[in-house]
Design a protein that fits this description.
single chain; about 100 residues; alpha+beta; 3-stranded antiparallel β-sheet; 4 helices
Length: about 100
Amino acid sequence: MDRTGDRAGDVLELRFEPREERGLRVFVRAVWQAVTLADTIPGNDASGSGGTYVVTRRADGTEVVRVDVAHDEIGPTRLYLEAQLAELSPAEFEDTWRAHDAG
């Protein structure tokens, strides 16, 4: 379980899941990646389709938070989540998002 003094980032992990694409969008994205190498940068979404940030427990992979984002929200949302993971305790992080989901 969480130890006293842990920051949320010590026990939780943040990852980005791009939105699934099909058909022509997959081809266009593949060409765009080949030309720009844009997806060599973690968290970059060159497709413009957005995705989801998922926060899970490192110990068992249990999902704690899922945040859907549009393409233009990717960077600001990542910064916001990273700041919370660095500043809040695990319990504070979960309480904040539980209240956010309820509201």
